[in-house]
Amino acid sequence: MTLGRVLALLSFITAVAVALIYLWPDMPWILPVGASAEAKGIDDLFRIMMVISAAIFIFVQGFLIYFALIFRRKPEDGPDAVGRNLHGDNRLEIAWTIAPALIVIVLTIFSVRELENLRLNETVPGAHNVDVVGYQFAWDFTHPETGIYEPNMLTLEAGQEVTLAITGREVGHAFWVPEFRLKQDATPGYIRRITFTPILPHNDPFFQGKYPNGFPLRCAELCGAGHSEMVANVRVLSSEEYAAWEAEEIVKMNSAPDGASVYQAKGCIGCHQLDAVGAVGAVGPTHNGMGATAEARIAAPDYTGTATTAEEYIIESIRNPGAYIVPNYPAGVMQPYPPEQINDAELDALVQFLLEQ
Amino acid sequence: MAKTVRTFLSQFLGRIPTMRLGVGVVAALVLMSLTISITYAQGEVPTQEQNMAGAVLGIFLALVGLGMLTVVLIGFVLWATQTKIPFLPQGEPQGIARYFSFSTDHKVIGIQYFWTSFAFFILGGIMALLVRWELALPGLFFTTTQYNQFFTMHGTIMIFFFIIPMLTGAFGNYIMPLQIGTFDMAFPKLNTLSFWLLVPGGLLMLASYFVPGGTAQAGWTAYPPLSILASKQGPGQLLWGISLFIAGWSSIVGGMNFLVTIMNMRTKGMSYFRMPLFTWNIAVTAVLQVLGTASFAAGLVLQVMAMTFDFPFFDPVRGGSPLLWQHVFWFYSHPAVYIMILPAFGIISETIPVFSRKPLFGYRALVFATCGIGVLSFVVWAHHMFTSALLPQLRLPFMLTTMLIAIPSGVKIFNWLGTMAFGKLTLNTSMLFSLALVSMFVIGGISGVMMGSIPVDIHLHDTYFVVAHIHYVLFGGSAFAIFAGIYYWFPKMFGKMLDERMGIWHFWLSFIGFNLAFLPMHAVGALGMPRRYADYAPEFTELNFVITVGAFLLGFAQLILVANMAYAFAKGKQAVDNPWGARTLEWMTSSPPPHHNFEEPLTVEHDPYDYEWNPPYKPLPETAPAVGD
């Protein structure tokens, strides 16, 4: 096979690859559904990179295999045969220095252009604001304009631009909804913003029926034992649904706290198992049958705390979790919840709720 | 005055016998156990007084420790500079025993490094398989804490105790002095020190598995405040920091030694531009080791102080910043990627010309590309932090510098292809692994450029895409080069040939297992699976299962390498001086080389890859190499 034919073959394969990348518009084998207005630009940039990558990949691997085959030492060469005494070629060196330089310049231009669209860490007028706090191992969302507070669940309006102000409580986390394509570390001591417009891509066949609970928000920065369980749901509602939901939440806000919602709101759900609210965490002990368990714990010979009733035991486990560590669970994972984080009214509701389990 | 001080110091310190190294190591261990017991005594919630006492004691102990280290280092430097030609002391142990001694022979030290890091390779591999076992199917097999410990240890061991010591410690130590035609390193005792710092470092890392609470679990990146929080569950996280601090010193000391050796100990006629590419890469790597590791060591001191005495360096509530560590860490750990890949490039820049029977194409271009990568590696670190709380305006300049690195990397790949063109290729195991590196590094390089672009990285960062990328660079790059180097230099180092049939099996199973394991990771990550997840959504099951199968195949393939080496020692063919017909100086002496390498000083008159000439060097008379070592 001559060099010309090899070049022709490699160009042909590249053309096929490029055609495939473009004819398969959503690239569902490597990217999830795009559910934000920003996703399209990022996907287009990704696609450009896939095209350039495919060309580089095919040509380098093609030449590598071609050289390995045709320049292979043959039996008739004998043991002393040497290759052609080439030490280099300055024109070639210049050419293959400039070629990758051009490629990265092009990529950089595309990247910078896309970066300008992303409005990272800006306050955007007209955008709906949400304060996001990541903590071990759940997320808190507050809508400051209405005061609506959502534990481990975020509700957004389709087509409405939203700015998230993201921070972390005790360790670093990262806000990432793959379908939005955006990620921001939630670092204690810093507030960083991302702005985007969530959409409902009803035309996308991969969207249909795939997200009954909304889009998964996955923590993307190692944050401890419950890292992989730190998943929240982000619901995107149409404008009418959103307005109805908002009104309902405001009504609910003005009534007394109930134990089940405190349980979800304060992140117990992230680490513990409790069938009544669908919590499946395995970092800490189960809360199924908590009333009976609490009685048994304080009666156990190895009990190290000071509680004398089941109620006191549950309070102690929340305010001062280190007082007694359930066997087979590591100490120091659960941090104490002082009154600033769970106030007395919430605590009462929570304890009553757990006692009934 | 200065002279008096110098004379006094040299009389006082100048003749530290090798055995006093032991004293230094013991002192370091005592220091560490003190620090650990203080942590214990402090309990979980230290009082204000304990904090104060701890801080005072900590500064004092750190000064004592650093002072002790400085004394030892100054002693060695003075000793080495006063004795221009440091001959070995008489009466060194012989045979196997010398591998357990404070030998100053660079070849003995090279082999000490080789087996130590190979043992860690197996350990780190077992950790990787445990990680993959957990991820084979959704649901939990181990506890999440155990899982976090597995991947933390896998990353730490593979990077700091396998790849870096294997490439710089084993090959750098053994091969580089031979390639420049000298009889030993410039500072042989410093060389001893650098290996014997790695041993306590490695032992502490292993010891951390046996302390209450288990070993470190904050990832190899150990971001605070998570790492500080983890240290409250037991001293494992602290031992991690101390262990890496010591291993870091091993790397710094080794790097200084390499630099001085390459600058001063080249034989007659060995100009800089006649140095083999492996030596060039070791030289640039040494610069990175000396400049970068110091930053890492400083960062580790901050971490250890924060863990033991509750210093608020990383605590935003008390005026610290979690970002501080990220900057300090990546300022080292990005160059560390090049510490791990440049010697690998060096190895295949030796094997490709030898097995193509053709001079290296664009020798100078490769040298300049190596230096270019070395310089650029220090100005790209924040591309690991595009999604962090980094000041947003800082992202763009780091994207530009990151993109630039693609240029010298591309130049390297094209020059290797140019070397193959019109050659007479022998596709033995060493060459196959070298070509596989070129092929796999293209993939790792491409995915690197993709993630260098901020908008794309914001989606891909901290996902399995990144895991795929680092493994294409560090396994497909560094580890494949290590295998190429083992098959290439094993005859020189141990005087025995490795078996080619087993070698070919090792190659193909590794290559297939590797791609099966790491290619699907790109998709898993981009589709939405973050890295370091112990459990995952069911939609990722199929790909993860394939990855686990590939990983176990890859692990199995390494058993063939172990068997091959065992077979070589038991029944392997005796190696001749120059089995590959190479032209670099390490082949111009017996296999393994005699004490002090060459019988008489060599004069170099030709390029290192000149296959049209017969070796211009006078080979030693055939000597039967000692069997067994």
Give the secondary structure arrangement, pairings included.
The complex is a heterodimer of chains A (about 350) and B (about 625).
Chain A: H1 3-23, H2 37-70, H3 90-118, E1 128-135, E2 138-143, E3 148-151, E4 153-157, E5 162-168, E6 173-177, E7 182-186, E8 192-196, E9 215-218, E10 231-237, H4 239-253, H5 259-265, H6 268-271, E11 273-274, E12 279-280, H7 290-299, H8 310-319, H9 344-355
Parallel strand pairs in A: 1-5, 4-10
Antiparallel strand pairs in A: 1-2, 2-3, 5-8, 6-7, 9-10, 11-12
Helix pairs in contact in A: 1-2, 2-3, 5-9, 7-8, 8-9
Chain B: H1 2-13, H2 20-42, H3 48-82, H4 106-135, H5 144-179, H6 188-207, H7 226-230, H8 236-264, H9 277-309, H10 322-356, H11 363-376, H12 395-420, H13 429-452, H14 454-460, H15 464-494, H16 500-527, H17 541-571
Helix pairs in contact in B: 2-3, 4-5, 4-6, 4-17, 5-6, 5-8, 5-9, 5-10, 5-15, 6-8, 8-9, 9-10, 9-11, 10-12, 10-13, 10-15, 11-12, 12-13, 13-15, 13-16, 15-16, 16-17
